[in-house]
Amino acid sequence: MSHFQDTFVAQSAAVRVRFGAGVRHSVAEEIRALGCRRALILSTPQQVTTAQEFADLCGPLAVGIYSNATMHTPVDISDAAAAYAVQLGADCVVAVGGGSTTGLGKAIAYRTDLPQIVVPTTYAGSEATPILGQTENGRKSTLTSPKVQPEVILYDAELVRTLPVGMTVTSALNAMAHAAEGLYAQNRSPISTLMALEGLRAFRDGLPNVMANPHDLTARGETLYGAWLCGTVLGQVGMALHHKLCHTLGGSFDLPHAETHAVILAHAIGYNAAAVPDLLAPITQIFGGTSPGQAIYDFAVKMKAPLALRDLGLKETDLDRAADLATQNPYWNPRPIDRNALRQLLQAAWAGDAPAV
Ligand code: NAD
Description:
With 357 residues, the protein is α/β, with parallel strands linked by helices.
């Protein structure tokens, strides 16, 4: 069956994507192609060695390194980084890292309009979206702006080989969540659906091979391909219950980003399955099993993903407040948000049980 819809709007960002093991060696060429000559390289403190490798690859085209990228993009760090970019006379940024470093590049672009080259080293997918999440005074907010959409993405599987196995799995499930929720998004199109399904297939096929050999470049490439597709879906369509729950648990209980996505995904999909059985049936076809929630849960078990919110530091006594918060200002969702059902979902996710289907 095709993914035809009677009506739809499909909008794609103008992004140049270069893909391939070793493609980072083209970074100077890409800076010049943008008409730029003064790149500021961005990283986290943990990845400063990789940032230095990029500065070396850029040679005279690199004017500095800012290596203070931080999870959840704190506004004060973004302000300091943007001021540093202006002080150096930078005319573009090269963000090398996961969603935190990409977020910093986006925050600089939002403030300065500088073009961005992003070199992702996780599967989070932020590089493919016009979305910027930031934190200020302990509160996370999100904005969407074309200014924030990166212009160039270099997907180099060699850089993802160092991602530890545990983070590899949680980051992959983080990416898969964008695709899974994209399947029932109100503003989905046949193209976003095609990308979502292909992204899920890429993780189904590639992730077990990465787990067997984290240095397998073909498998790393296949999962990176999945990350691109899933991130592109996130950039094109709206997200629902799964992302609301993860934002609530991350924002109000300080749970880690990718791990929380990994635990919640099977439960959120299980919650929505009965409301949109046709739209979620492909998940069961792709991963096997009896229902979409169970299929994702079984895949997560096989990949040795974290399964329980209690293992991420959430207390059982927090569950009532989490259910209350997740019920407030809900995102659109295919199944109405029922506080009691959500509380049960959270209990199962807290304990690490299989999702109710
Ligand atoms: P991250 O960028 O915070 O990285 C986690 C840690 O892993 C960091 O210390 C980083 O330096 C290290 N790391 C990254 N790649 C590595 C590699 N290949 N080898 C060794 N170490 C490596 O984690 P993340 O999950 O990629 O990003 C999470 C952040 O991204 C969150 O703030 C989230 O909100 C944001 N995000 C935003 C969007 C969006 O569209 N705006 C989408 C997804 C995620």
